[in-house]
Amino acid sequence: MLYYEPSVLYSILKNHRAKVAILTDSNTEEVCLPYLSEIIKPYMAENSVSFYSVQAGEQSKTLHEATKIFEKLQNWEFQKKDLVLVLGGGMLCDLGSFCASIYKRGLRQFLIPTSLLAMCDAAIGGKTGVNLAHVKNSVGSFYPAEGILVLSEFIKTLPRKEVMSGFGEVIKHGILQSQKDFLATIFAFDFYKKHSIIQEEVLINAANFKRKIVEQDPWEKNVRKILNYGHTIGHALESAWLMEGKEIPHGICVLYGILYENQIAVSQGILHMDQANFIKSFISNFIGEFSMKIPSKYVMESLVLQDKKNEQDGINFSLIQDFGKPMIDIYIDKTVVLKALENEIDF
Ligand SMILES: NC(=O)c1ccc[n+]([C@@H]2O[C@H](COP(=O)([O-])OP(=O)(O)OC[C@H]3O[C@@H](n4cnc5c(N)ncnc54)[C@H](O)[C@@H]3O)[C@@H](O)[C@H]2O)c1
């Protein structure tokens, strides 16, 4: 269930008769927790709440950090009826809900995403997980939150780079919906650049799009796979750059992924070159400031082959034929993929 009204949280807590813990990362503890504490002040005045904070950043999305959270939950004597509130971006939503999903075989959990990316994507749909070595989300589970509270207030403190990353997924949702929705996301970004405000309707549209898709296919057997558009290559790039010590925001990697996957779709006669170029003209401009060398094809080869969506010979992609016309389970020969990756993007 998606909520947009802060008062919902107080109502939920008021009716909750067991323990509560709030997980934050080192940034959200500093800039988001004071606002949240204000909302639930009357509850905190009468009840004790436990707090735990992990170091901000993707490097915390590990089994090691998860173990530390399990130990905290054990010290607090948490039982199934107790509630974990996760206050953070996609990293913490993935890590916190992973812990909530397996501690005592599942605690109550409520997510309060604080980054644009988590509000429109990561917090919605129940995927939890941690990374193993440099491979993203290798260990995880499906565990939908009881509720997700989206408060655009938190975007005020979000660094510009992270707002751009969130727009990566918002733009992807736009392309998957229609050309009109795609352009609306691009205009919304221009509006943000001028006024430092994200138009609420764009945020709600992107979050609702994801909600509707995951409601149709919670276990990603079918239509939900369209959301992996841009992610087969996007994830591989994200991991490869991380191995080089460069933490490139997830949504930016997804936009790179979209450009390369569109090239592949064009090479296979799936997508018309004009549409690919139209998308590229906006996206390359958008990611221009993150212009990066693509890591060596050998690194890419091994990482792409490790992708969890690789179920047969060839690499499994979710591509598009046009705006609003996604295709899933397209297996592409790895030589075609490597050839596409050899082309640097011309910004
Ligand atoms: N489960 C899913 O379906 C799903 C989908 C997409 C992405 N993800 C995962 O989400 C993660 C990326 O999410 P992300 O981009 O939110 O990363 P993140 O959680 O690391 O947040 C990015 C940075 O912004 C900071 N931050 C968050 N909210 C803030 C705020 N309001 N003010 C100031 N700083 C704030 C964080 O501390 C961090 O430094 C990746 O691990 C990715 O794999 C999961």
Give me a quick take on this structure:
With 347 residues, this protein is an alpha/beta fold. It has helices at 7-14, 26-31, 33-39, 41-46, 63-75, 90-102, 116-122, 160-177, 179-195, 200-216, 231-243, 250-267, 273-287, 297-306, 334-342; strands at 2-3, 20-25, 49-54, 83-88, 108-113, 127-132, 135-142, 147-149, 315-322, 325-332.
Could you please describe the fold and organization of this structure?
The structure is a single chain. With 347 residues, this protein is of the alpha/beta class. It folds into 2 domains: 2-157, Rossmann fold, CATH 3.40.50; 160-342, Dehydroquinate synthase-like - alpha domain (Dehydroquinate synthase-like, alpha domain, Up-down Bundle), CATH 1.20.1090.10. The protein contains 15 helices and 10 strands. The protein has helices at 7-14, 26-31, 33-39, 41-46, 63-75, 90-102, 116-122, 160-177, 179-195, 200-216, 231-243, 250-267, 273-287, 297-306, 334-342, and strands at 2-3, 20-25, 49-54, 83-88, 108-113, 127-132, 135-142, 147-149, 315-322, 325-332. It has a 6-stranded parallel β-sheet with strand order 1-8-5-4-2-3, with helices on both faces. A two-stranded antiparallel sheet has the order 6-7. A hairpin with a 2-residue loop joins strand 9 and strand 10. The radius of gyration is 20 Å and the shape is globular. The mean pLDDT is 91. The structure holds nicotinamide-adenine-dinucleotide. Residues 25, 27-28, 31-32, 56-58, 61, 88-92, 94, 114-115, 117-118, 121-122, 125, 127, 136-137, 154, 157-158, 162, 165, 249-250 line the site of nicotinamide-adenine-dinucleotide (NAD).
